[in-house]
Amino acid sequence: MLGAVHEYPFLIREQHLDTFGHVNNARYLEILEEARWDLITRNGYGLDEVMRRRIGPTILEINMKFQRELRNRQRITIRSWTESYVGKIGKFVQQILDADGNLCCETLFTIALFDLNARKLIVPTPEWTKAIGLSEADLAPPAAR
Fold it and tell me: Under 8 Å CB-to-CB from 99, ≥6 apart: which residues?
């Protein structure tokens, strides 16, 4: 684990459920996105900043493991952190834990910073690094740390 861990409490509600009475797989992505926006907004890089800078986060790949059902009115915590960031590409982990601390879902995102004007990936800026819980030292090659 490279970056600081962000915790986001969340209550599962009726609109998150599918016909099986548990959270629909597509809703997991919405819930996790809400927690990511909370993290970067709290760290000074919310939607207003994305629009002002014309530089924002993008997801390149998602790997999800569903381990326990999430049910109606269940209280969960979403833990989020940056696992690594090399060059333009980062690895970002999110876990959903139930009230007892059991792992319900773990997701690994491959992320990057996207320049909306140039339409290309760019190296992380200091503001983006801070937003995802990293320091400049975290971006140094391992031998330099």
Answer: 74, 75, 76
* Domain ranges across the chain: 6-134
Number of residues written out for the chain: 145
Structure-token match 């320091």, residue found: 135
Tell me the pairing of strands 89-98 and 75-86.
antiparallel
Question: In this predicted model, what pLDDT tens digit does every residue of 91-122 receive, in sequence order?
Answer: 999 999 999 999 999 999 999 999 999 999 99
Tokens representing residue 121 in the block: 């990936």
Which structure tokens are listed for 80?
Answer: 């989020």
* pTM for this model (two decimals): 0.92
Q: CA angle, corner 71, sides to 42 and 105, nearest 5?
A: 55
> Is 51 within 8 Å of 139 (Cβ atoms)?
no
* Tokens coding 89: 């590409």
Q: Which CATH fold would you assign to the domain 6-134?
A: Thiol Ester Dehydrase; Chain A (3.10.129)
Helix spans in 1-145 (H) = 25-42, 47-53, 126-131
CA distances to 13, 22, 26, 77, 111 from 66, rounded to whole Å, are 18, 12, 12, 15, 20
**Any idea which residues carry the catalytic annotation?**
18
